[in-house]
Amino acid sequence: MRNLLLLLFALIAAPLHAEDWQARSTERDVVLKDFRFGTGEVMDTRIHVTTLGTPHRNAKGEIDNAVMILHGTGGSGWQFFRPQFADELYGPGQVLDITKWYVILPDNIGHGKSSKPSDGLRMAFPRYDYDDMVRAQHDMLVQGLGVKQLQLILGTSMGCMHGFVWGETYPGFARRLAPFACNAVAIAGRNRMWRKMSIEAIKADPLWNAGNYTEQPTSGLRTARSLSIIAGGNAWALQEQYPTRELAEEALDKAFNAPNPFGNDANDTIYWYDSSRNYDPSKDLEKITVPVLWINSADDFINPPEFGLPEKMVSRMPRAQFILIPFSPETKGHGTHTWAKFWKDDLAKLMAMQ
């Protein structure tokens, strides 16, 4: 799994699956013919999507049990098979029980098995942004899966931000929104700085060669990955796990010396970090009138709680609730968003709302 916000390499290892959710899933590619990017470029664009459960159709023949879960920067739909998420949500009687819900897990543009720079275009790939990604999700649902309404969009990190874009661009398409681990303001200040530093580290590596490399620029990727450890981690938990200099450095050495330690394609990584460049839903939050469950965690370096931004903005959405998960050695830094034990009861309350 490449998601910078979940991994922290091998520092916080996830357990093996208690259930084989992947074996219960179905995968397909939806090709959006002549998809137009915000840059004006047009190309056939592949959106890979994994689904769990079975679509149910109402008396009008419309699918009425679909929920979509959106991954974070560098992730894919497959990350939601991890036991800390799937085993808490998809089983019998659980809040997203797949015998009841049709769960849609797309790989966003630039990610996973969807169209991305590393397919061949490299830096000539259209410079997509969050608006493009959300529009592609919409077209994938309507054109590819025949879904014209969602019961829920749950998004983590980048997916959290996509949730706000969805709520403003397609009001009411999703009857409920659950944005986890983001803010509803422009990516600026330190948040933009560490992303930009990651981009520039890759570009400064001589092997990058303006994107036309013959081998991955591992020095630049190492710097980008190092920044992601700082951005994604829970400082309290890391201090307890690695309380001496020797233990901390040993953990890093193991991570960086593992097979394929960086994993990511350099150009794909540049596009990931840059795609948030013009995100800013702050002007139109009043358009979001459906129930919203907005959750951040107090140990999140990327979305610092001391700014108090959600508390100031949540009242602009008439049916929104904001919850801040307290900082503790058990929380997972920015990645708390994918450990469902922290928020599944609140999600159940959201799903009960009409």
List keywords for this structure.
single chain; 354 residues; Rossmann fold; 8 strands
Task: Please state how the strands of the largest beta sheet are arranged side by side.
Answer: 1-2-4-3-5-6-7-8
Which residues form runs of ≥5 with pLDDT under 50? 1-17
Number of domains: 1
Q: How many strands, which pairing sense, and closed or not: the largest β-sheet?
A: 8 strands, mixed
**How many beta-strand segments?**
8
Distance from first to last alpha carbon: 35 Å
Helix content: 25-40%
Q: Mean pLDDT score, rounded?
A: 92
Determine the CATH superfamily. Answer: Alpha/Beta hydrolase fold, catalytic domain
Describe the protein's architecture and organization.
- There is one protein chain.
- The protein has a single domain, classed as 3-Layer(aba) Sandwich (Rossmann fold), CATH 3.40.50.
- It contains ten helices and eight strands.
- It has an eight-stranded mixed β-sheet with strand order 1-2-4-3-5-6-7-8, with helices on both faces.
- Strand 5, helix 3 and strand 6 form a beta-alpha-beta unit.
- The longest helix has 16 residues.
- The protein is globular.
- The two termini are 35 Å apart.
